[in-house]
Amino acid sequence: MARMVLEGLYKAVRASLMKSHKEVCTMARPKKRSFSWHIRKVLAEQKKPMHYADITREILKVKETKGKTPERTVMAVLIRDKKNIFKRVGDGVFCLSTLKEESTKT
Fold first, then answer.
1. Strands of 50-51's sheet in order across
2. How is the chain split into domains, by residue range?
3. Which of 8, 85, 22, 88 lies closest to 52 in space, CA to CA?
4. Cα distance between residue 61 and residue 12, in whole Å
5. Which of 4, 12, 57, 58 could be cross-linked to 42 through a Cys-Cys bond (beta carbons 3.0 to 4.6 Å apart)?
6. CATH architecture, range 35-105
């Protein structure tokens, strides 16, 4: 009988520990954002075409990176865009495809 009580107590304690562990894990982890997400955010805020070096400077104000060449990473994301989010409007100058459509209408 004592064993059954201990097993029940063990299960209750373990369940409460697992619940608190899950809460701590989800609260402590900041959400990682991709370079693509940051590029979209910067271009949407600026509302004008920007050079990839300027985009990189704006991103590095809010995102840390361990990479040695963040400008090349940004350029690679812009060039390899498969969802047609970004449009090239000049040498190294890009804008959001929605912004390019709005500027040609006016």
1. 50-51, 93-96, 86-90
2. 1-30, 35-105
3. 88
4. 46
5. 58
6. Orthogonal Bundle (1.10)
